Amino acid sequence: xxxxxxxxxxxxxxxxxxxxxxxxxxxxxxxxxxxxxxxxxxxxxxxxxxxxxxxxxxxxxxxxxxxxxxxxxxxxxxxxxxxxxxxxxxxxxxxxxxxxxxxxxxxxxxxxxxxxxxxxxxxxxxxxxxxxxxxxxxxxxxxxxxxxxxxxxxxxxxxxxxxxxxxxxxxxxxxxxxxxxxxxxxxxxxxxxxxxxxxxxxxxxxxx
Length: 208
Fold this sequence. Notes:
- The chain has 9 helices and 2 strands; from the N terminus they run H-E-E-H-H-H-H-H-H-H-H.
- The protein is mainly α.
- The chain has one domain (19-207).
- Strand 1 and strand 2 (48-50) form a beta hairpin.
- It is elongated and about 110 Å long.
- The mean pLDDT is 80.
């Protein structure tokens, strides 16, 4: 029977210590990443309650996201600004004209053929123009009333908070991992790299 020589044992120690340290570093970081979502339900182990970070704080996460959206990403003023943009106003004018034209050419004739026949040619063009001017004059007032109603009833923070709270944890987990998959993977790899470096330092101290 042959036993490993002292040199072989020394070489094995030099190689194994950094590799074992790298594995421990990778494993602990991988476990930490998994514990962002797992376990889903609180589990007691040796008197300690363990639960995934997101399942435990889903309500706080929902409130934080809702607050961020309303205060920094989207507000009623943003909606009003979009509605008042030049391209939106031009599109609105086009839609109003299309509706008035359709009403005069089709719906008016169907509902009252005699009146439809009387209002034709230049008269119809004049009526369409008057209707457009009147409706367009009312649009700013209607927009202001609509925004006032929205400010009273549309709570962006509450809507976002409610949506996040209703997310299934599987769905929420997929969203977060889709966004941060590369960064989470890097955390695991970094754990292995740091573990390997610590192992090398340990070997250096052993042989100094």
